[in-house]
Model the fold of this input.
Amino acid sequence: MKAHLDMVMAQAPAGSSGACLSQLGRELLSQLAAARGFPCPVGEWSPRGCGEPRHPALLPPWRACLSHRGLRVIAGIATVPVGIDIEQARSRHRDRLSGLVACLPEADIRREILASAAPLNMFYRAWTLHEALFKLDSLCGKTPSHVLDTHLSRLLPGGGTHAWRWQHGDWTISICCQYRSLRIRSLPKLSVRTSDGLLNSPPTGQ
Done:
C-alpha cells in the first residue's frame, strides 16, 4: 500500500480558545482535502471532542489527524492510520522534570532522559511519542486506557512501529505509523526525520 501523509502547521491568533484551535484545525483539514480532490465543507467535520475528525466527503483510504498546543495547530490527512502530536516546552515543567520523568513507564527511557545534556527536550521527545502511539492505537480501534499505557519499545529497532520527529526551539512534533514507506509532505516544509525509538540517537534523513 502507498502510504502518504499531507500535513500543515499554522499559528492561531493570540487569545484563541480551544474551540478556535479546533475550528482552525478543521479549516486546515478542508484545505488539505481539497488539494487531494475532496471538497470537504468545514461545517461538516465531526465536532470537537468526538475523537478522530471525520468528514463524509473524505473517502477511504484517506483519514484525518489533528493536534494542537499553545497557539500552533497541526493537521494532516493520510492514506493509513497516523498518530501525530505537537507539544511546546513549558518552563514550569523544568522545575518538576524529575517527577514527570518518573511517570514514564520504561526504565531505560527514564535513564536516557536524566543522563541527557538537554533533559527537558528529551522528555518532550518521549512524551510526544507516547501521545502519537496512543492516537495511532485509537485510530486502529484499540484505544489504551491511558497515554502511558503505550511503550516506546514498540518503535524500531526492536519493535514494528515507525516514528518520525521534528524538534526546533520549544516545539516538538512526533509522528507514528505502521508503514516505513510513509511519504510526508508538510507545509511549511519541516525537516521531519526518522527516529529509531532511541531518544539520543542521531536521526537519519526522511
Remarks:
- The mean pLDDT is 91.
